[in-house]
Amino acid sequence: MNKDLDVGSDKLKTVLCYLCGKPLSEPTNVDHIPMKQLWTPEIRKTHGPNLQTRRVHRQCNSDYQLDENYFLATILPLAKGSYAGESHYRKLATDIISKKELPLKIQVLNEFSDKVGGIHLPNSKIAKSFDTRRFNRIIWKIIRGLFFVHNDEVLPVEWPILRDVFIDNPPEHFLLFNSLPNISEHGAYPGVFSYRYTKLMEPDGLHYWAMLFLDQIIITVSFDDLK
Asked: Mean pLDDT throughout 10-14?
């Protein structure tokens, strides 16, 4: 398996913790962008992706751990049938036997319902809800990390965002973004995670990010320029 790759290693990675924006000081550790647990041990062994990392304060990193666990657990049911999703389900079978993180799994099961606002959905459809605060916190953390990797700029810990999640029937804003020319795709192993981004209405304007998780789940995020 390849060692993790520090993209842009000649930049500010040894100076700032992108999670808090303060100068790095010990104790520190390595943060994977996005979280390493998206790649199962099976996928890491088979494909050996070079994961993007940055050194951060250990406490800053650990403050996100429970929400990262939640994020993966809540999107995983949407990835059933994909190569990466099935790898996670094989790992999940072992975790269930060991009762690992059982309360979290029960929470995610309770996020499925055949009713919305008390009204039953037609044709046996099921609605999926999210813990918006925790979900958006991790999505924003991922964008902050990638933004730091590409631009050496620390984004605020909190910032207003517009977020969308879908598997099929993409919304109009995504179709328009997808039609734009010359927008590169990034990602060490696209079957698990890839992303594209642009800044509209240069030089000041709107940032738009589209991220593909586990080869099935598309999450888009837009936010105003910070300047």
From this structure: 50
> How does DSSP assign 10-52, residue by residue?
TSGGGTB-TTT-SBP-SSEEEEEES-GGGS-HHHHHHH----E
Task: Give the span between the Cα atoms of 9 and 13, in whole angstroms.
Answer: 7
Confidence of residue 167 (pLDDT cuts 50, 70, 90): very high
Position with higher pLDDT, 106 vs 159: 159
Q: How many CA atoms within 13 Å lie on the side-chain side of 105?
A: 11
34 pLDDT tier (thresholds 50, 70, 90): very high
Do the bridges between strand 217-224 and strand 206-213 make them parallel or antiparallel, or are there none, so unpaired? Answer: antiparallel
Q: How far apart are CA 28 and CA 22, in angstroms?
A: 12
Q: How confident is the model at residue 12 (pLDDT cuts 50, 70, 90)?
A: very low
Q: Look at residues 145, 195, 206 and name the one whose alpha carbon lies nearest to residue 173.
A: 206
Contacts of 169 (CB under 8 A, 6+ apart): none
Q: Determine whether 2 is exposed, middle or buried from the number of CB atoms within 10 Å of its CB (0-12, 13-18, 19+).
A: exposed
Q: 63: number of CA atoms within 13 Å, CB side?
A: 11
Query: Using CA atoms, how far apart are residues 97 and 112, in angstroms rounded to an integer?
Result: 22
> Which residue is it, tokens 């994961």?
51
Q: Is the pLDDT of residue 25 over 90?
A: yes
Instruction: Give Cα 209 distance to the centre of its chain.
Output: 11
Residue with tokens 């000041």: 204
